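Q: I'm writing up a methods section and want to include an example of the input and output format. Could you take the sequence below and give the corresponding predicted structure tokens, formatted cleanly so I can copy it straight into the document?
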Amino acid sequence: MAKVSDKHLIMTLAGSATKAKVKASGKKVIAESTTKINSAAKHLVIVESPTKAKTIGRYLGKNYTVTASMGHVRDLPKGSIGVDMENGFSPEYTVMKGKQAIITELNKAAKGVATIYLATDPDREGEAISWHLQQAANWKNIPIQRVVFHEITPIAIKEAFDHPREIDMQMVNAQQARRILDRLVGYQLSPLLWRKVQRGLSAGRVQSVALRLVVGRDREIEAFVPQEYWTLEAALQTEDSKSFIARLHGTTSAKERLELPNEDAVVAITGDLQGTSYSVSNVTKREAKRRPSAPFITSTLQQESWRKLRFSARKTMQVAQQLYEGISVGSEGEVGLITYMRTDSTQVAASAVNETLAYIRKHYGTEYAPKEPRHYASKSKGAQEAHEAVRPTGVVRDPQALRAYLSSDQFRLYELVWKRMVASQMNDAILDQTQVQVEASGRTGATYVFRASGSTVKFPGFRALYMEGVDDDSEEQEAVLPAITKGQALSCQELKPDQHFTQPPSRFTDASLIKLLEEHGIGRPSTYAPIISTLVDRQYTLRERGSLNSTRLGQVVSDQLTAHFPDIMDLDFTANLEEMLDKVASGEQEWVPLLTEFYGPFTEALEKAKEEMPRVKVEEPTDEICELCDRPMVIKRGRFGPFLSCSGFPECKNSKPIVQKTGALCPVDGGDLVQRKGKGRIFFGCSNYPNCTFTVTRRPLEPPCPLCGGLLVASGRDDAECVNHDYKGPAPEAEVAEAI
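A: Here is the clean output for your methods example:
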């Protein structure tokens, strides 16, 4: 068997890279090869994408031809369920539309080669792609080897090609089982929803559980009843005029915190404290350590990129894929900058850890590097420890050094991955924490206890580089307290009562929903982004200022499925199914019995639902009146999105698109300026079109220009510009940030 020599690893693939267009179905371009086919090549390497092929091609010698399959080439048919339930759930795979030409080209490239290496991604999906390639191309009398690497670097490529293996059919069967499960559910529940709710709907095995979580959270928020409560703070001062704030905790006679349910309770205490003295009854100091977070896995990468970059899960994975497959970095050419981004393992190769520690010592000092490397245990259920965490392929590639070669999104995500990895191997942050207890005797004889907490950074450790984001930014920040000793007398400058109301739970964001799915063991690294994207694309949820809000359609679908398919919508049931799929991948479970056990109860529930599930109209009332029959208009959803329809349908068939008003008026004829969309871009125009053709590309603002009274448009987060002259400055009202 041929091995990749060190010399080969530094040679560029012979021949200039080309993008040969492969045509099928007339003029349609269906694929681009990324490496010129060399008739003298001894080995054929197949990956999924042209970018990945180009990057790998740089590390292989002239005896290797690298080309791309453009992802999957076979799948279950679109027009039918494609699974023979009576014959062991045998799948009926077909070559996907447009992929036969690619298979033909791969067969041409395979002629005369000594070995075919299948180098698709190192997960179940990648294993299945390799198996489908082998089955579809039907290569005969050619040795076929599977090579797996988690980063596209010379060392990783050499290691993979020096240790090829056979296709892992256990991983393939796990992927087949998941695909068939999803097909059985989707192709039989979706038509049911078409009949009972409306056409065009879809149901998925995992997406439906995620939808139930979103709907449940929204209803919890709607049902929430705020409860009033008060706090009382004392502005205290030491003898040397150093000030700090302490909050009322309780009394010395009571162990629990004192509740202040209303203003009367606060007034009674403030009256009791009038003219009293305050003194420090206790000072507690301790040293606290904060450990850095583990390097990223898929879920934490998606969560943190939402918190810090406001990237959706889908966008995070798209940008990460680019960084993994390779970016042109000056004279280096295409370089894979991060390891494989679909992983649930926090393990890191020893070589990468050592490189990181050396970087920390050089750039931060030896006091920032621990004596022993840090190791992190994976928390995810079924974590594949053979994988690595998401990390830079080379810590020495500082983000700033790469900035000129990366797009803004690529740079920001790479910087996030780089900082997380470096910080994960740095020493703990050390804080000096102080808690002060202050007592004051009231006129009634009660002794009130006030508390204040503060901290100072004794040693920043990993915090010199990175701090993990939080989902809830309402966390209180501890203050820095002045030097205080026990028994010290204090003067009260002011008592500050404050009214509060309890708050409902926050709506889900990409980050918080992924976190909850992971906690329940629902979904796997490759599924989080598609789950959320499907909920949004199907209009079951809407993104509103970063939150995922369920629509009326999503609520109806969730209610119908929960009522008639309790197992499918049950969190524990779905999590257990995920564990069974993991066992198929590890060889502990056969996949056909797993499908059999699932399908029996499912078909029973399906037949029962066909008879018992009620028909539900999904209509949202509006204040708008139909101009043809004076009946109210309702919001319906069709294949192209929501629209307004007369509630008198089918007697009255009036319908029209939903108009999003901006609140601003057209400077030409005074009509409402509304949001429109054309050729994929959003713009704003007069509602009286076609009689008035006024448009602007930036969002109009309701307040007029303070100089001329003309139309203002948003400019950045907090500024505005006038369309009439050179005015540019802050918007008259703080509405710009919300409008963008």
